[in-house]
# Entry
Amino acid sequence: MTKLSVLISVYHKERPEHLRQSLESIFQQETPADEVVLVEDGPLTDSLRQVIRQMQEHYPQLNFSIMLGTEKQLQKLLEKI
# Structure
């Protein structure tokens, strides 16, 4: 069976409620994701970190959080692919 992964980039200007809505939408899809990878594209606010922690408690598929260090690093990483 094929594994479905979802990649989401999050950065400090993201609104916490939008992140929550996005994640809830992913987990409510007809074909559920096996994993959801959040990429922290630079430092995040405490509010965003709180949303991530809360969502990880409810959805075990949200099992990765990668810190890239500075904003725009995900864009540079994806350009190499």
In short: The mean pLDDT is 83. Residues 35 and 61 are 5 Å apart (CA to CA).
